[in-house]
Sequence to fold (490 residues):
Amino acid sequence: MTITPLPSFPSFDNSYARELDGPAFYAAARPEAAPAPRLLYLNQALADELGLPPLAAEQAAALFSGNSLPAGAQPIAQAYAGHQFGGFSPSLGDGRALLIGELIDREGRRRDLAFKGSGRTPFSRNGDGRAAVGPMLRELLIGEAMQALGVPTTRALAVVATGTTVRREQPLPGAVLTRVAASHLRVGTFQYFSARGDIDSLRRLLAYALARHDAELADAPVPALALLGAVARRQARLIAQWMNLGFIHGVMNTDNMTISGETIDYGPCAFMERYDPATRFSSIDQQGRYAYGNQPAIARWNLARLAEALLPTMVDPDGPEAEIEQAIAQVSEVIDAFPAWYETALREGQRLKLGAPDAALADAWLALLQRGGADFTQAWRALAEAREGNEAALHALFDDSTGLAAWLAHWQAACTATPAQLRAANPRLIPRNHRVEEALTAASEGGDMGPTEALLAALRQPFSADPALQRYAEPAPAALTAGYRTFCGT
Ligand code: AMP
Ligand code: MG
Fold:
């Protein structure tokens, strides 16, 4: 790895490494050399947002493979713990990721720049620290789709094929993803220090997180409570957005839940087609713990783990029992408020999608979708046409449309939205599983980025009615969806 002084590269301001210094928080590490870096994708709009200088493909490949870092970059692997599928791992950390540094973007926001797949770190355990082209492009496609849909998300800045072969079930081309995030602080970051009884570090982390994400709460009387409430509110809004889009994260471990409220770690995620709350795609989620309909409850469970982790900053665990009970009551109040915050956000989203402020109408609609086997995205979108007088298009989406005509009569009477407003609230284009697979296969097996670029272009305009994009609006054949499984790509 060389350090390249790139002219006009913005200066890094690495607050995490500076303020949370010391071996407790991170380990310095270096990206592994990439033998033949080739730029697959550069997000120019995001690069502009970050104030990066114009980069030739070769420069970008050297930079975003980690072969040559800009001056001021300080690669570190962050420590964190996490509950994975309910079981606690006290020490996870960045096993195949590196925080490169922090930049202040054009709008004054602090953004982490991080690599994923850049090789082994002190947290790698038995892993190779690598990532494959397919899963990194998948993170790009789904993340950018989420961004276009208005969902808080980490962003893909670049994907570089490294020229190495990654050994998975079969040999795969290796890649490094450069990710931009509001921060990489996770629920699991707090769990890490709490579980080790390192309360001093826990307090420092808490102060850092508040200053970074909730500066207005920095002087709150009980900082832990302030942070917990802010995170819970952000997560309530985030999960409500997921649910209203049919998004299934697939691996909502506590190390994959951010403090910032951004969606992170697009592994085995996928969008639901036919509406069924039991839908899950992940091959490793045998029990359906992270199924679509479980996501709000899992979010609350994860927040309860954050609350537990924060408790030692509020009260001495060996102190008087009454004080401990009071602290538990205080955090419990937040955790118990979460379902109502979530419900409010969900209903607000449904109100826009339906054009009517009627929860019972929304519930009846979802029941119809489920019984009728309708595609979730298409059915919502077809409401705009129904509003224009064409209810047949909506009927055609149902295998069994019993009750739909009666529901539509209620809805037409209650709806105050125009067709255009309904179209602006109900996307037509989501990352359809078969289109994503098609694109990843072409890129991974044939080195052809064409399908990925075309899909990305479509996903950047999710509300478009452009007939030329119709192939991206159609669900996969039902047989394909039934057997569809996603993998973590680790
Ligand atoms: P993830 O499933 O990507 O959220 O990762 C969970 C944990 O496993 C994190 O600590 C990762 O850093 C680690 N991990 C995942 N894949 C690898 C890999 N190929 N090599 C080393 N560590 C990994
Ligand atoms: Mg993760």
